[in-house]
Design brief:
Blueprint lengths: L2 H21 L19 H12 L50 H12 L10 H16 L12 H15 L10 E9 L1 H5 L10 H26 L7 E5 L2 E7 L2 H22 L4 E9 L6 H20 L37 H12 L5 E6 L11 E2 L7 E6 L2 H4 L3 H5 L3 E6 L15 E2 L17 H4 L9 E8 L2 H8 L5 H26 L4 E6 L2 E7 L2 H16 L8 E8 L5 H16 L7 E4 L2 E4 H21 L3 H15 L10 H12 L6 H23 L4 H11 L2
Parallel strand pairs: 8-9, 13-14
Antiparallel strand pairs: 1-3, 1-4, 2-3, 5-7, 5-8, 6-7, 10-12, 10-13, 11-12, 14-15
Length: about 725
C-alpha cells in the first residue's frame, strides 16, 4: 500500500469536508486529523474525477436534504418526498422518512468530530489502517448527508467515488486512452460450500453453518484486500463490496494488470488446495475510457461489466491455464466428518478448514473484532486472542475483543504488520449506533444464544412455536436486481451504482440481524447480505419474520412498487440434512420466481402467492382458530375445507367442482351449526360462510390451504 495513494484519497475526503463545513451558516468546524496525514495537491485530477463520477459536468445543488435513490428506480416522475435524518448510521436510520428532519446539522456534525477522536491513536502510525477506520466513520456520519452536486447521492458515496478516480488518474504510468481498470470479483460455489455435508454435519449444525457463512464473507473481504495491496491502492478504491461481490477502481498500468493475473492464479491455487475447488473467485478486469462514464455511454459500460463477470464465472478456477488442477490427495485418516470433500487430520475426525469453521462459530459469540495480519506478524498472546489455523490468501486471521486488548497491538501496527482491524459486532437492537472507533465489516449474522452464551441448537429452535415441533427454512433475494442496476437507475452514473449497492446490502446485513435480535430472538440468519438471505427459525415465527421483512423493505425502498423480493419457505424437522434444506429452499424460491414476470411472491406449503395476499392469509389462520374455538368446530370439518378450496380453484375444469359452494354450505349447516344452541345458529352460520367461504375459499381458492395448514400445525402437540 502506498502512502502517496492514501494521502491522495485522504486529501479528496478532506477537500469535500472543508467545502461542506464552510458552506453552512455559521461555518462548521473541521475534525482534527492525525499529523501523519499530509495533504497533497489533487487539483490536476479533481474536476475530471467529478465529471467521471457524475457522468456529466457538475452543477451545484443547494440542498441540505438527501432524498432516497430508491424512489427514482424505474420511475419517471416522482415527488421525492422521502428523505433521511441527520443521524449516525444505525439499523433504523437507514430508512427514509416522509416527515421533516428533526435533528439539526450542527448537532450531528459535532458527533462526527467526536467520532474521529475515537479511532485508536496507535493506529495513526499505519496510514492504511487509519484510513480504513476513517472510511467507516465517513459512512456512519455522512451517508445521510447530500453530496455537493446531487441530492440523491450521499456525501459518503460521492466523495469515496471521487477519491477512487483521483487515485487512478494520478498514476503517471496509466494508459492515456483508457486510464482505468475496473476490477470485479464474484465468488461462485458459496451455497455448495456453506451447505456441504458429512457424516456429522448435522451435529452442531447451527455453529458450523455460522462459521462457514462468516468464512465466506472473510474470503470476499480478504480477496479484495489482497488486490488492493498488490495494486498499492487505498481502501477507498474499493467502491462496492457485498455478498461475495466487489468492485475496485485501479489505474490501467501494466504493473496492475500483471499483479491481477498473479493474484488470480494464487487465489485459484489456494481454493483448489484448501477447498478442492468447492468454492472460487472469478476476477473480471474491464478497461475504461473517461467517456465510458458519461451518462449516454454508462449503460453500455455496465452491460459490459455484467457480461465480463458472467464470462469469468464460467471459466471456473481457470483449470486449463495457469492453475495446477490435478491434486494428489490422500485420505489416510478418512474424510472430514463435517465435509466429506476434505481429508481428516491425523488423530482427528475433522479437516483443518472445518476445525476453523467451528472455532469461528464459537468466537463470534465471544469476540467482536478481527485482525488481519501478516503471516509472520508478532501478535501479543497475553490477552485472549484466537488465531485461525489456516491462513487465508497469505493473511493471518486473529479474533480479539475489547478495546483494552487492541492497545496491545501498537507495535505490529507501527511495523505495518497489521493490514486491517475490523469490527463485526452486531447491533443489540434497531436503534443501536454502529460506530465504535473501528472500521466495520457487515459480515456477521444473527444467531440465538442461551443464557450461558452458547448457540441454541436447531433441535431447541424447532420447539419455540406453538404446536408442531418444526423448523422453517427461508431463502430469498431481490427480484430483477441485474435489470435494476443496468436499466433502472435514472440518470445513471457510477456513484449511484455504488450507493445503490451499499444501501441494498445494508438492509439485509445491518437491519435484518438487528431486527431478529430485537423482535425474533429464535431466528437464525445463515447469511444475509447483498440482495439475498437465508434464514432458519421456528416454523411459524419465520412466516411472521418474512412478512415483517417484506413490509420493512417496501418502506426502505421509498414505497417503490418496482423494487421487491421473493422468498421460498420449507417446513422440516431438525434432523433433515442441512444440504437438503438448502436444496428444498432453493426449489421453493425458484417456484416463487415463476409465478409471473413481476415475481414479488412467496412460496410455502408448495403454494406460491403474491405478497399482497400474504397478510390476509396469515390473518385467516387466526380467524380459523377463533371460529374453531367459539363454535367447537371439528378437525374433520376444517380438513374438508382443503377439498373445497381445491375445487374452487379448478371449477372451470369439472362441473362437479363448481358445486363446491353448495356442498360447503350444507356441510357447515349439518356438521357445525346443527350442533349449536338455537340462539347461536344464525350468527355462527353467517360468520363461517362469510369468513371461511367468501373471504377464504371464494377469494383465495387453493391458496386458502395455507392458513388451514397453519391452523392444523398449531393444534398439534
Amino acid at each position: 500500500m502506498s502512502d502517496h495513494t492514501n494521502s491522495l484519497a485522504f486529501s479528496v475526503l478532506h477537500h469535500y469536508l472543508k467545502l461542506f463545513a464552510e458552506k453552512q451558516e455559521p461555518h462548521l468546524p473541521l475534525p482534527s486529523f492525525p499529523s501523519q496525514f499530509k495533504q497533497v495537491d489533487i487539483s490536476p485530477f479533481l474536476s475530471q474525477a467529478e465529471c467521471i463520477v457524475l457522468g456529466k459536468q457538475p452543477e451545484l445543488k443547494e440542498s441540505n436534504k438527501l432524498f432516497s435513490l430508491f424512489e427514482t428506480i424505474h420511475q419517471k416522475n416522482t415527488e421525492t418526498p422521502f428523505s433521511y435524518d441527520f443521524q449516525p448510521l444505525s439499523p433504523n436510520t437507514i430508512f427514509p422518512k416522509k416527515e421533516e428532519n428533526n435533528t439539526t446539522l450542527s448537532v450531528h456534525w459535532d458527533k462526527f468530530i467526536n467520532a474521529i477522536n475515537e479511532i485508536p491513536k496507535s493506529h495513526c502510525d499505519n496510514p492504511s489502517l487509519w484510513l480504513d477506520h476513517f472510511d467507516t466513520a465517513m459512512q456512519c456520519f455522512t451517508c445521510n448527508l447530500p453530496s455537493p452536486y446531487s441530492d440523491d447521492i450521499s456525501f459518503y458515496d460521492f466523495t469515496k467515488s471521487v477519491a477512487a478516480f483521483v487515485v487512478a488518474l494520478a498514476d503517471q504510468e496509466s494508459n492515456n486512452a483508457e486510464p482505468f481498470l475496473l476490477i470485479q470479483g464474484d465468488f461462485f460455489g458459496i451455497q455448495d460450500f456453506i451447505f456441504s455435508g458429512g457424516s456429522a454435519s448435522n451435529k452442531g449444525a447451527a455453529k458450523i453453518l455460522r462459521g462457514r457463512s462468516f468464512q465466506v464473507s472473510l474470503f470476499t473481504e480478504l480477496a479484495a484486500l489482497k488486490i488492493l495491496n498488490v495494486c498499492k491502492l487505498p481502501t477507498t478504491s474499493q467502491m462496492m463490496n457485498a455478498a461475495g461481490k466487489f468492485l475496485i477502481v485501479a489505474p490501467n498500468t501494466e504493473e496492475v494488470k500483471n499483479a491481477i493475473k498473479q493474484v488470480q492464479s494464487e487465489l485459484n491455487q489456494w481454493f483448489i488446495k484448501e477447498t478442492y475447488g468447492l468454492i472460487g473467485l472469478g476476477i473480471a478486469v474491464q478497461s475504461a475510457k473517461c467517456s465510458d462514464f458519461e451518462q449516454n455511454n454508462y449503460k453500455e459500460l455496465v452491460k459490459k461489466l455484467f457480461q465480463n463477470l458472467e464470462e469469468q464465472k464460467l471459466k471456473r478456477l481457470d483449470l486449463t491455464d495457469t492453475t495446477q488442477s490435478v491434486q494428489e490427495v490422500e485420505y489416510p485418516n478418512g474424510v472430514c466428518e463435517m465435509n466429506s470433500f476434505f481429508p481428516a487430520q491425523i488423530g482427528k475426525e475433522r479437516s483443518v478448514i472445518s476445525e476453523d469453521q467451528i472455532k469461528i462459530g464459537e468466537m463470534l459469540s465471544k469476540k467482536q473484532r478481527i485482525i488481519i495480519a501478516d503471516i509472520n506478524a508478532d501478535i501479543n498472546h497475553k490477552y485472549e486472542t484466537q488465531i485461525l489455523k489456516l491462513p487465508i490468501f497469505g493473511f493471518k486471521v486473529i479474533f480479539t475483543n475489547s478495546r483494552e486488548d487492541t492497545k496491545e497491538f501498537g507495535y505490529p501496527v507501527k511495523l505495518l504488520q497489521i493490514h486491517r482491524f475490523w469490527d463485526f459486532s452486531l447491533p443489540k437492537d434497531t436503534n443501536a449506533k454502529i460506530w465504535n472507533g473501528y472500521a466495520r465489516r457487515y459480515i456477521n449474522a444473527y444467531v440465538p444464544f442461551d443464557e450461558e452464551g452458547k448457540i441454541i441448537t436447531f433441535e431447541d429452535i424447532e420447539t419455540q412455536d406453538k404446536g408442531q415441533k418444526a423448523l422453517m427454512t427461508l431463502k430469498g433475494d431481490v427480484d430483477n436486481l441485474g435489470t435494476i442496476f443496468q436499466e433502472g437507475i435514472r440518470s445513471a452514473n457510477i456513484a449511484k451504482m455504488a450507493a445503490l449497492s451499499r444501501q441494498m446490502n445494508l438492509f439485509f446485513s445491518l437491519w435484518l440481524p438487528a431486527y431478529c435480535a430485537e423482535q425474533s430472538q429464535s431466528m437464525y440468519t445463515v447469511f444475509a447480505g447483498g440482495d439475498d438471505f437465508f434464514l432458519i427459525g421456528p416454523w411459524y415465527s419465520t412466516q411472521k419474520v418474512a412478512h415483517a421483512m417484506q413490509q420493512a423493505f417496501a418502506h426502505y425502498v421509498a414505497e417503490n412498487p418496482k423494487i421487491h423480493f421473493s422468498v421460498g419457505m420449507v417446513m422440516s424437522k431438525s434432523n433433515i440434512p442441512v444440504p437438503r434444506l438448502g436444496d428444498l429452499a432453493k426449489e421453493a424460491l425458484e417456484k416463487s420466481k415463476k409465478i409471473d414476470t413481476n415475481k414479488n411472491a412467496i412460496t410455502i406449503f408448495n403454494r406460491s402467492v403474491k405478497w399482497e395476499k400474504w397478510q390476509f392469509l396469515l390473518n385467516l389462520g387466526d380467524e380459523i382458530e377463533r371460529l374453531a374455538k367459539d363454535y367447537e368446530i371439528s378437525t374433520a370439518y376444517i380438513y374438508s375445507l382443503i377439498h373445497f378450496a381445491l375445487q374452487a380453484e379448478n371449477k372451470e375444469n369439472k362441473i362437479e367442482n363448481s358445486m363446491w359452494r353448495s356442498r360447503f354450505y350444507y356441510k357447515t349447516a349439518r356438521y357445525v351449526v346443527d350442533k349449536l344452541k338455537k340462539e347461536e345458529k344464525s350468527t355462527a352460520l353467517n360468520q363461517i360462510i362469510t369468513s371461511l367461504g367468501d373471504k377464504g375459499i371464494e377469494t383465495y381458492k387453493g391458496d386458502f390451504i395455507i392458513p388451514i395448514f397453519n391452523y392444523f400445525y398449531q393444534q398439534r402437540n
